Amino acid sequence: MGKTFIPNFEARPPKPGTFRSIFKWGEPDLFKHPSQGFFSVIKETLELPDSHFAKKRATGDQPVEETVPSNLTREDLAALTKIVGKENIDQSTYARLFHATGKSMEDILRLRHNVIEHLPDIVVHPRSKADVQKIVDHCNSNSIPVHVYGGGSSVTQGLECRKGGVTLVMGTHMNKVIEFNETNQTITVEPGMMGPDYEDALNNAPKRFKAAHAYTGGHFPQSFEHSSVGGWIVTLGAGQASSYYGDAYDLVISQEYVTPTGTFKTRDFPGTATGPKINDIMKGSEGCYGVLVSVTLKVFRHFPKNTRTFGFIFPTWEDAVNASREICQGEFGMPSVLRISDPEETDVAMKMYGIHDSILDRFMKLKSFKPHQRCFLMGQTDGNHRFTAMVKANIKKVCKQNKGMYITGYPMSKWSHGRFSDPYMRDSLNDYDVLIDTLECSVTWENLHSLHTAVRNHIKQNSRTICMTHASHFYAQGTNLYFIFITRNKDLNEFRQFQQGIIEQINANKGSLSHHHGVGRLMASFMENHLGKEQMAVLKALKRHFDPNAIMNPGGTLGLD
């Protein structure tokens, strides 16, 4: 037997100051490469010989040269310096590029080819709400655009600064707990607080806040380790446990904003009947109306020892969908995590997780769970131990009624192990001109299958493309579909056309433009067609009220300009 070919995947931290140090996912010294099974699927489907992986391409190892001058006037520079201090401003090309770049495939392709564009004129690190107020007032008086940077994990081109201006980096200083209120079961934090710090504070509430219980925020997006609390809220994010805890929209109790027309804080009542809620209007506003400076969120008692995992295999996608719909509509309580994978994602997962050709795989085939048809369902329950046991028991019953076979929590344990680290693989594959990206949407149960088929057919027009699909956020009325596509290298314009075609198919087949990644500039051109002129007119009227001089995140975000 010949030696298994393994590419020379990069395992060295990027050099400081390079393009790669900007687009690399996560920690500089952490890496994750495709498993041998996953790599084999990619080579086979994309028809790539071993020789294709002999040489890396467009690695972005070049330094970012100091080539782009700032257009900020001396007077404006002096004013901003007076507000935050010299140590909290940066006009270097590198810093401006770093804070104007997210993690969309378009962002990455530009950086890999050393393209520098859409920069702010200055990066500013505010220390407090007072700093933010002074900065916004100055910029509003002088027509200077204002952008906000949280964790930098945007995948919708939400960080671009197409009109220059100022980018406020919230995580440097504005990253603290303001108040923990165990009586109300809420926490108030500054927007720059990162996911791990937020969850750690809650898990350790007895020690940190002298609380009677440990708590969890319940919000765990795949970007959890590298995204901010403020970012979750202004893009309407959803964590992987949202089916039980709710998404960012559900978690927010009150917010405080600085806008060009004034500062306000919404009230923290659990419910009111005082007209349309400004608190709701500001969720998902993506920095277009003002700057989020504090937020109060729900928290939940934390019972990690009560977690119960489960996994099932179904003969078909239809059976898996039917089971998940009955779980959501069964009125016995929701699991925190619930995921179903379509046949292509299931086949890939079998190889990624080392299940392919195992005893379990052979047993599945013996029981007529066939490759290219069978589908995974997996998840976990959280909460009180009686509740978690009851929910799991009912899930087992529903799955059995819908032709599912219990296969223990093993697939869930494998998925959990890589839930936050899988994005690291993109860098490894991109080095060899293999593109991997995602698009996701919300859809009602009645439209799920037609949308799934239409989008997959569009993506698979090129047979040398992998299209894995799963649903991972569930409601009684529907779910989301998350499309992961892997294809050969495309230049930037070709990739844009490919991506826009997928969005068009989602919109045409009654899916939402986004379920949990926000709108940014990626979806902006579709917003009016998707929402209609009347609803867009409302959003634009709000823009004119909060931001009459159009300085807040201009350049197309939400389709507002």
Q: How would you explain this protein's 3D organization?
A:
The chain is an alpha+beta fold. Among the domains are: 177-301, Uridine Diphospho-n-acetylenolpyruvylglucosamine Reductase, domain 3; 304-418, Alpha-Beta Plaits, CATH 3.30.70.3450. 36% of the residues lie in helices and 17% in strands. It has helices at residues 20-23, 36-46, 74-84, 93-98, 105-112, 129-141, 195-203, 205-209, 229-234, 242-245, 248-251, 278-282, 317-329, 343-352, 359-366, 385-401, 410-418, 424-430, 445-459, 492-508, 527-531, 533-546, and strands spanning 89-90, 122-124, 146-149, 166-169, 177-181, 186-189, 215-216, 252-259, 262-265, 291-298, 300-301, 308-314, 337-341, 375-381, 405-406, 434-444, 466-471, 478-488. The strands form 4 sheets. The protein has a 7-stranded antiparallel β-sheet with strand order 15-12-14-13-17-18-16, with helices on both faces. A 5-stranded antiparallel β-sheet has the order 5-6-10-8-9. It has a 4-stranded mixed β-sheet with strand order 1-2-4-3. β17 and β18 (478-488) form a beta hairpin. α3 runs antiparallel to α6 and α13 (317-329) crosses α16. The model has no long low-confidence stretch (mean pLDDT 96).
